[in-house]
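From the pipeline queue, job 12 of 40. The input is one protein chain; the requested action is below.

Action: predict structure.
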Amino acid sequence: MALTIYDISQKAGVSTATVSRVLNGSGNVSPSTQEKVMAIIEKYDYIPNAFARGMGLRSLKTIGILCADSSDLFAAKAIYLLEQELQASGYESLLCCTGYNLGVKKNYLNLILSKKVDSIILVGSNFIAPTKLENEYIADAASQVPIMLLNASYNHPNVYSILCDDYNAMYEATSSMIDSGINDILYLYNSESYSGIKKLKGFQDAWQEKLGRACTDHACFYRGKPDSIPDIADFVKQTADKGLSFHGVIAADDSLAIGAMKYAQQKGLRIPEDISVIGYNNSVLTNCCSPELTSVDNCLEIQTHQLVQTLLHVLAGEGVPNKVIFSGKLIKRHTTSF
């Protein structure tokens, strides 16, 4: 088995951050400690995959960014914000769009590692799977470079998670709608990612607590094209035609919410008088529809800023929290009256 920076830190009796500082030549390491670490490196003939730049080892000032789908509004904005922050801090970035297949994600992660990047940012929660085995490729990569997760969480050394509390944000949004007097709510979602599961649980728990019964058939999974508003509207129509009654819709993203609005308008329903709608992500779409969409702001700009600041501290060998969580906020517009 190849030696990792964790093995080196253990053998040298120093932190992994100290090993990283020595490998990066970033200073702030005493000569005696540097000699100790270099002795271990030379003894075991350690050639780090992502830092093989000769033993003068200096940063290439390059960060890898992986996302599942750059056409997704959340991912597209996140990538833009991250690249702006990284460029302002003197770093370049390499972007790969992996899709959702686990094998392809692994291949792209290894490809980015081969480019000798200083760190890798995984955008969105689709990279985190429910089983340990499916997440092993991330753990393996974290033994070589810091792994930064945007809006996902994974507890592992050298993995840093920056995320919105999607569970509580959705719980509060659902509670607000129920408290307004609407107790027949359709919940629309199209992802069972880490974030998607948290949102669904927030909706279900608020429903259970406020209405005193389990949510059974009011949470509906949409499997069609995520950016096709007509298809989403048709899905909502099919759901209603099956006999499900609802006077409120809460969606796991803004595209789904606007699809529900299109359905309501086709049926001649007034928004919000006859039906209330809440989206999620507070994307540009919220101001591109009529009436303007109430949506949960997941603090994406704050998340991306915090992620880059955390990354810079990690690369400098400074101690930082492995997880930072922000609270989402319901931005009320004209699709709700509460």
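Job complete. The longest helix spans residues 194-211.
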